């Protein structure tokens, strides 16, 4: 604390929020522009200032003084983003830069001034470099301490060493940047920093508190806070250039192996490990292939080498049949390989199980599965992740082994049997409610649900509807049309109510879409990847159809799957209607699902979509 | 005092073993299965190194898949790794409901002509390997895979025709409950499973189990009149006006 203030060079870009708006959003800063925050002007361009606009004005006042004013909203993120290239440009000239705020950065002046031959030369060099590389005007001030350097930068002057106290003494107290304190000091008759600094430090602390004492130190030129310079991120990328283009898979794999070892050494040198890895390959003809590989654990050297090999394998050999959207086969060999570690985190080391067994089994299984991936390709070994969705096929996403296990759709995780059992008579395990509803959650209204009185064929819900749609059972049409999508508002569905309620009781307040219209458990054990076409007929031999009002024309009696023999239907339930993604015509799907039981004991999940019956899943 | 300690350590002696000591016979050598299936298997579980075949029934849709899920469930829950080869129609939702940990379950939907290599590689590292048997499998390949499983201590569960298995489980009959003409929904299924095999399992056995299990879809048909209003939150329930009337319509099978 007793050190003398460090000689500081501060680079200041005037009206930075306005400049940032020009750089990012293309608002011309040569026009009158103001940046508003909370309806107050916080920055304005030069021409706006000429029109009489000052900081702190209201929007209406500012527009009154200058009718053709461009108003931009304040966006701190935009300011920081736009300032990053400026900092990078400064770092090209000097080392150890601290970003004070967007628009101002400081560095120690001693090194650059000695290296570049004097403080003035260093300041000129920095301003010129920033102007050339970023096309941004800036000013430099050099003084003892960051505070004084900031004031000096506003005038673009270099305060002589030891002259900081005199330089500060003439400034008004408003320069402290503390409006309340400056106002109070003015009323007490203290107008300049010199007068403020002349007050006894103990009295200032007693009267103005800690912040006042700090301001007092600044005013006296005793700003001895060291610079907190930022550490530029380490460059972890490894690149290999090949004079002889690599056009065989085994040669590429060999090259990848050494490259992976290098990357791993470099990561280990920093004590890091990566969970995402970008692999970039460039051919002699300039074609590029970039792919990011994810991994749920940490990528070891062997895992990196495997992934490089898979990617190059798929690319160099054209296509291995999976994936579909592979890029075209390159026309020349690979001349450059780059590995870009992406998700980098601190390597904490492997934590084996207490008895040393859990980790070992996991390792053993991982080795075996990686081996199979090596035989069949990375997408051939998958794990299933359960997510939300209405049909059994929607709820499952197959991710390649080793990738992150993220479900395709957000939704309730698979209910563990323990969670399902304590609610014996809960609505989810009750009757097949066509759980879609047009209405938002209504306040409890005693509307009788007259499902029992509806014609037997018209209503899918002959079982009780505890909190069903408050509509009579007949017109179910709007109900179908409103099957809400993934991010819909909560609907008045018993299932939804139950779920959200249970979750909040458990303490998890994450809002999960309820997926009304899901098929209730048990889930089918056989889910057909592509549904089989089928034919369903009633007792009279007529095809069974489901009308737009979800009326089933007649009880289904016979089912023919493909070219097979007709089988007698002994039990059926439905329809469970879904109308999904109607706002996206390519993905829209409007189906009504049925569960049927056949005479031979089999049970199937059927769906009817625009008149065509499909077998979606088998309850095997 | 000392005497009591000796007694205490003697009682612990058969529970504790040094980590370096080999597994006692029958200890970790058998993977657990669900209680109702223990009667079918010779060691009351999946003995490591054995081959437990699940035969496809005479009609194709027979409940064999659910039987496989039930076989895997307890072992997977206890921490074993499982792999399923050659079943592109595998229903992961049903697997999760059966109690299988999906993050320890690897699927190889389409092994193609590399089937023997893939299964052999999986036997090396995974505790339970379920595989659909391709139509053209020579007896020598099958014997070699079974020998490999015996050597590595994995359980091979071929699904389909497989000669020479230690136990062959077969679904004889399955009857679904809960679905009536136009009402209800599928709830549970009573499955009759028969087991026959070699050695200790030579005597054929037959049991009846619920597949999928009962605990997942518990309904109390008798309490339909009482259960629904009392179990669910009252705010939701006020929407249903005449409870007597709606509930008479319920009648889940």
Explained architecture:
The complex is a heterodimer of chains A (620) and B (253). Helix content of chain A is 31%, strand content 23%. With 620 residues, chain A is an alpha+beta fold. By secondary structure, chain B is of the alpha/beta class. In chain B, 31% of the residues lie in helices and 24% in strands. Chain B has helices at 2-13, 64-77, 92-98, 115-125, 139-152, 224-231, 234-237, 243-250, and strands at residues 30-31, 46-47, 52-55, 82-85, 105-108, 128-132, 155-159, 167-180, 183-197, 205-210. The model of chain B is unreliable at 21-27 and 217-253 (pLDDT under 50). The interface between A and B is large, with 95 and 91 residues.
What keyword list fits this structure?
heterodimer; A: 620 residues; alpha+beta; six-stranded antiparallel barrel; four-stranded antiparallel β-sheet; 18 helices; 21 strands; elongated; B: 253 residues; alpha/beta; four-stranded mixed β-sheet; 8 helices; 10 strands; globular; disordered C terminus
